[in-house]
Hints:
Elements: E1 2-5, E2 20-23, E3 26-32, E4 35-36, E5 41-42, H1 47-64, E6 72-79, H2 85-95, E7 102-107, E8 117-124
Parallel strand pairs: 6-7
Antiparallel strand pairs: 1-2, 2-3, 3-8, 4-5, 6-8
Helix pairs in contact: 1-2
Amino acid sequence: MKKVIHTDKAPKAVGPYSQAIEANSMLFISGQIPVDSSTGQVVEGGIKEQTRQVLENVGAILKTAGYSYKDVIKSTVFLDNMENFAAMNEVYASYYPDAPPARSAFQVVKLPLGVMVEIETIASK
Length: 125
C-alpha cells in the first residue's frame, strides 16, 4: 500500500506528482530543487547555498515521514554544470558524514527554474 507524503516545509509539487511516496517501508522523494518553502523563491547564492536548501527540503520530507538522513540509501544528483560537483559534494558530505548513501550524479542540459542542482532520494527503514 502506498502513502502520499506532504509537508509545507518543502516546496509544493508543481505538477502531477507527490513530494514523496512511502511504500513497503521505503520512501521515494521526488527531485527537490533549492526553493525556500517559506518564500516560494529559489534561494540566492551559488551551488553551496542551493545544495544546502535542497538537502534541507529533503530533510523536511524525511522528518514528516518519520525518517532521517541516516535512512537514506540512494541519492541521484542532477547538476547544470559538472564543474560544480566538488562544491556540491562538500555540502552534501556534511549531511551524510557516516555511511553515506549510494549516489550517482549527472550533468543535465537544464533544470527547473534555472537552478543549479536537483536531488532525488530514496530512504528505507
